[in-house]
Amino acid sequence: MAIFSDTFALPSVSIMFFVYNLVQNRPVMNDDAAVEYLEKLQRAKGAFDHVFYVELWVAALTGLAEEYSDYPGSGGHALLWKSFVLVKLPALIEKLEARKSSKLDENEEIKYGRHECVINQLSGFRGLFNTCNPHLEGTIEDILFEVADISVDILKACFKRNLLRREFALRQLELEWSGSDSMEIDSYAGSILDDPNSDMIEKFVSEIPKRFMDQESRIETILRLITEWSNDQKLRYLSILCRLLGETAALLDIIHLYHHPSKILQPLEQLCNTWERSNNDDNFESYIQDCESFGIIFLFFINIIDRYELYKNLKDILCNEKGFCHMWILQSSVVYEKRSLNMEKANMVDYWVSAMATNPRIFIELTPTIFKYALAGINKHSISATTVTFETLSKNFEFFLKPYSSYALVGAIQWLCDDVFFKGQNTISSKVLKFLISSKDFPVSVARLVANKVMNILDNSVGSLPSVEDTETDFKLKLAAANNEPVLSSSKHPYETLFSRFWTMFKSIVYGGRQLKSTPNNMNIEYDIESPQMDLSLDLSWRGSHHLDITELGASLITIPLCYTWNAHLHPNNLIYIFFSDALVRALDRKVTLYVQGQALGILTLIVLITWNIQSNVSTKIGGKSIYEVFIEHVLPKFQNQKNDSENDINQHKETWSKLMYGPTRGFIDSLISNNNLIEEVPQLAVFKS
């Protein structure tokens, strides 16, 4: 029995939540876990294959369309969503089909039939497809892609994944198509490894294949280059690659759509922890170039951790907990008293070049301390901060704006911000901070890392300091240029937009719901995006209950682990245990007054029970028990007549049991027993079908 309607105006919230998390809150789960989750979500929904696949496609296309609608001038994160639509999703569907075929005796004609049915149904969503084909001029899309009808690209992607028959694809395209759009990526990668040069590397990175069929191969090649060049400590070529990837944030996001950031971070960590100047290299000029290359690699490494908010999970992301990279991230702005340092390092605080010449890691570590003592020296010779001239600052600090030393500025800028925060704007620290970030030589890779802290200091400035506004404007422009964005506020990472989107979605659900009932009048409703924002003024007479959407959203929030939170108390294991042992029991006992409320709780429980038991990277055991055992122990006894108990126990239990079994909460049980898949997992429910 299907609980969910087989027609829809928009994809269900559970599918939308899954897709948005997979794209924007990645990496949450690997492909195998994602496929298993989809399979179990379909079981929970009781949806037919073709209906489920159409919802998946529409959810993915909705994400892409909303990016184009929200950012009509730049496409926002459209490049990432387009990769998901044309590469990642077809790959997941292919794996889902393989998983199903291994369990069912089904020939390929049946598979072809359902996906051809899906393509035919998708063709009716012209409004959605039109929004996904913006035909923008002068954007990153024009540079990296041929502007084409995305429906054609979807058709080709499905054919490549053996989801469609060749004759069907040709009939849909109405042209002669060879079915081959590949590029010789592997041989090109071999050429880069055998005889690398900057032009070849730049061409390989900048020319994203115009046909998405080769995107995964190109990404695998990039990971291979990073690993091999890190192991061989080829700083020059690796720094070129890191610089290009750092300049193309969209490409970096796409890489991590397919692979966990640790695939890039771990080889880079090993290099940054161990690289030393060759004893045979007495050429200081060559060493300076190596320091510049090291700095590019190091800043790229830190930028990945910052961009994907991995600070709280370093033990799982990095290899060496006691290595330089791990330790520096935890204490990047620490300053030392000279007397606490050994003689060599204490001397380096006064003679900066010697610190860099010895080892770039020592230079990075000591830079905040160098700044502290340099500012103390300026203070000794100045009456007040207002008497410090630009020439004085330039003489003392322009060294740190050079390409071979600027990579050490991150910790120093953080320390300066802290000093300004505690001592106020009218200080030497404030002047030095503004001098550095206003300089045309201030590196954008450092600007990205210190942006939030610097902007907080500038936004909270007190007094009338004419240089503050100019400095803030310059810094915003610098960051905007670094992110290829018109203004700083447009450079939000997908993490920041994900939850605002779902807050909007939630309000939309509350006002009117997103599901339509299956009626003859709405069987062929087309989804057409007409404005960038969801309409929150929906008519309260909107057909269809919103209870189902809220329960789906609740189940998704409980069961899908969120990448940004590493708090064990917020892990799905704990949330599910609390839900079954406390929240659900209390709701059934005291809060449910209508049958439909019990039914909604039943659907929520059904989705949680079926979808969470997946092979994820964390244990699915809750306190040593399976999710079903927890449910059976805490929830099911409420609905069971205690026939074997004493007469007094039976009398005490009778009132509660009758209320649950024959009152509004009966909807809870009816929702559970409507799904045969759940009864297979929890046979104790079968008794309620009688």
Automatic annotation (TrEMBL):
Descriptive protein name: Mediator of RNA polymerase II transcription subunit 5
InterPro entries, sorted: Mediator_Med5_fun
Keywords carried by this UniProt record: Activator, Nucleus, Transcription, Transcription regulation
PANTHER family xref list: MEDIATOR OF RNA POLYMERASE II TRANSCRIPTION SUBUNIT 5
Primary localisation category: nucleus
Nucleus keyword on record: yes
Family: Belongs to the Mediator complex subunit 5 family.
Location of the protein in the cell: Nucleus
